[in-house]
Amino acid sequence: MRIGELDLNVRSAGSGAPLLWAHGMMSSMEAEDALGILQWQHFSASLRLVRYDARGHGASAACAPATWHALGQDMLALADALGEDTFIAGGWSMGCASALHAALHAPVRVDGLVLILPPTLWEARIAQAALYRRAIALAQSVGGARYARLIARDGGALPPWLLKAAPHLAAAARYGMRDLSTPGMLALYESAAVSDLPPRAALEALSGTPALIVGWAGDPTHPLASAHELHRLLPNSNLFIAQDHQDVLTIPTRLREFVQATAARR
């Protein structure tokens, strides 16, 4: 779908209140489906599910920069192109930040937020940015393809307890990176290194917005501190922390029930 300067790979299914969903960094719709955690095939057809590959990911064209701010603007532009005045915004990791940026730019347009695995935020972002820049240096040194294999070998950011319970997820973690060129990968790391949320006080604009926040233990890329802090700052939010594989299996149902309940209040 052509949206201004953007050329996005978009999938839309169902009808009714829309959920616009954004995947994580170096992922894609295909990679999410390979991972299988969110079980999109069971999403209600009475709701409109809109998923898309973010700029520079999957089958969408690269369009620099892919900062969180730019990705939030992309979500709003997609809603405009689809004719959706209001929508539920959601995402995983980078997509979670994209949804928050979209909501902060246009709070009246976002009926609810689904924030899965919030990434490092605010003070913790400084150290994470340093990790991204070290990753840039390493990828430049060994080559993008080899670097992708190195970080996918251990399941990427998936916590060890989840990989132990579901070892097949390690192979699925390779999907999002397999088609990335080295320049594309480096550009995504650089965009991530300069990304963050606005100051905490800005989230007061979302104080009345219902939100579902989901984190899991043992994942420093998606620290529980971020999930807890967003829960504190968003008074109309519910927080769920997955501690084991059985908890992870409940995430799709929690997501669907939240979206259905939020849509019913529109």
Number of domains: 1
- Indicate the structural class: alpha/beta
CATH architecture: 3-Layer(aba) Sandwich
N-to-C SSE string, H for helix and E for strand:
EEEEHEHEHEHHHHHEHEHH
Strand order of the largest sheet: 3-5-4-6-7-8-9
Strand content: 15-25%
Q: How many β-strands, per DSSP?
A: 9
The helix content is: 40-55%
What oligomeric state do these chains adopt?
A: single chain
Q: What is the CATH topology classification name?
A: Rossmann fold
CATH superfamily, by name, is Alpha/Beta hydrolase fold, catalytic domain
The largest sheet is: 7 strands, mixed
Give the averaged pLDDT, no decimals: 91
Low-confidence sequence ranges: none
What Rg do the Cα atoms give? 17 Å
Shape: globular
Our count of helices gives 11
What does it look like?
Helices cover 43% and strands 16% of the residues. The strands form two sheets. It has a seven-stranded mixed sheet, with helices on both faces. A two-stranded antiparallel ribbon has the order 1-2. Strand 8, helix 9 (224-233) and strand 9 (237-242) form a beta-alpha-beta unit. The chain has helices at residues 29-35, 68-82, 94-105, 123-142, 144-152, 160-165, 168-172, 182-193, 224-233, 245-249, 251-264, and strands spanning 2-3, 6-7, 10-13, 18-22, 48-52, 87-92, 110-116, 211-216, 237-242. It has eleven helices and nine strands. The chain is of the alpha/beta class and 266 residues long. The mean pLDDT is 91.
Features:
single chain, 266 residues, alpha/beta, Rossmann fold, 7-stranded mixed β-sheet, two-stranded antiparallel sheet, 9 strands, 16% strand
